[in-house]
From TrEMBL:
<protein>
    <recommendedName>
        <fullName>Deoxyribose-phosphate aldolase</fullName>
        <ecNumber>4.1.2.4</ecNumber>
    </recommendedName>
</protein>
<dbReference type="GO" id="GO:0009264">
    <property type="term" value="P:deoxyribonucleotide catabolic process"/>
</dbReference>
<dbReference type="GO" id="GO:0004139">
    <property type="term" value="F:deoxyribose-phosphate aldolase activity"/>
</dbReference>
<dbReference type="InterPro" id="IPR002915">
    <property type="entry name" value="DeoC/FbaB/LacD_aldolase"/>
</dbReference>
<dbReference type="InterPro" id="IPR013785">
    <property type="entry name" value="Aldolase_TIM"/>
</dbReference>
<keyword id="KW-0456">Lyase</keyword>
<dbReference type="GO" id="GO:0016052">
    <property type="term" value="P:carbohydrate catabolic process"/>
</dbReference>
<feature type="active site" description="Proton donor/acceptor">
    <location>
        <position position="94"/>
    </location>
</feature>
<comment type="function">
    <text>Catalyzes a reversible aldol reaction between acetaldehyde and D-glyceraldehyde 3-phosphate to generate 2-deoxy-D-ribose 5-phosphate.</text>
</comment>
<keyword id="KW-0704">Schiff base</keyword>
<comment type="similarity">
    <text>Belongs to the DeoC/FbaB aldolase family. DeoC type 1 subfamily.</text>
</comment>
<dbReference type="GO" id="GO:0005737">
    <property type="term" value="C:cytoplasm"/>
</dbReference>
<keyword id="KW-0963">Cytoplasm</keyword>
<feature type="active site" description="Schiff-base intermediate with acetaldehyde">
    <location>
        <position position="159"/>
    </location>
</feature>
<feature type="active site" description="Proton donor/acceptor">
    <location>
        <position position="198"/>
    </location>
</feature>
<dbReference type="InterPro" id="IPR028581">
    <property type="entry name" value="DeoC_typeI"/>
</dbReference>
<dbReference type="Pfam" id="PF01791">
    <property type="entry name" value="DeoC"/>
</dbReference>
Length: 238
């Protein structure tokens, strides 16, 4: 568990992924990440050059998403997106799997996709985080199999959600759970010890963040970063 404000900050990937995010908001978010010495920013690939410029010399990683948010691009498109992001300065990649292929249990396809992306990450000295989008996976068996594949390929992280995996209900309304205690514990238990777990989706308070870290999570994707850091300071973290 983190015992200092810096330890909390260094567990945070600051999410700058909203579809309406402007260049001004992107710049402000990257500057905020630099000022607070966060672990990383999580941004769209087009934003990598600007983020790299703002974060030059800082110990804040530039993290680009791949196949975001639905993971439906052809493997070759994802590979090219990852290559370009790394070439422009990304040092972390958060990649969404082809969810339809997961639900089809086409494990050869999924293994090939993860392997191809991990090869790009490794060739560029980047960390790969594989996003499962657990809200769309109705049984633990899918998550367990994905953990096994990610462990075999030796990716850096497995990740619960994009933050945009809203599931339409029979009444026409949408539901969303994000990072649940059950899923995080399952992913930590099932993955090889060297694979880290990232929680994303629905974490909006310091207590919620501390709870998932206690479950063995190494990184937390947040859009409520400012509020959580302010809460930590008010509670005496220094």
């Amino acid at each position: 568990m983190p015992e200092s404000l810096r330890a909390i900050a260094k567990a945070i990937d600051h999410s700058l992924l909203h579809p309406t995010l402007t260049d001004q908001e992107l710049r402000k978010g990257c500057e905020f990440a630099r000022e607070n010495d966060l672990a990383a920013v999580s941004i769209k690939p087009y934003a990598v050059p600007l983020a790299r410029e703002i974060l030059k010399g800082a110990e804040v990683a530039v993290g680009a998403v791949v196949g975001f948010p639905h993971g439906n691009n052809h493997i070759e498109i994802k590979v090219r997106e990852a290559e370009l992001a790394c070439a422009e300065g990304a040092t972390e990649l958060d990649a969404v799997l082809n969810i339809g292929k997961v639900l089809s249990r086409d494990w050869d396809y999924i293994s090939a996709e993860i392997t191809a992306l991990n090869e790009i990450a490794a060739a560029n000295g980047a960390l790969l985080k594989i996003i499962f989008e657990n809200d769309f996976l109705p049984e633990d068996s899918y998550k367990i199999k994905l953990c096994e594949i990610c462990s075999a390929v030796a990716v850096a992280f497995v990740k619960t959600s994009t933050g945009y995996g809203f599931v339409k209900q029979s009444n026409g309304m949408y539901s969303y759970q994000g990072a649940t205690d059950h899923d995080l514990a399952l992913m930590r238990k099932t993955c090889a010890p060297g694979i880290r777990v990232k929680a994303a989706g629905g974490i909006r308070s310091l207590d919620e963040m501390l709870k998932v870290l206690k479950l063995g999570v190494s990184r937390v994707g947040l859009s409520a970063t400012k509020a959580i850091l302010e809460e930590a300071r008010s509670r005496g973290y220094k």
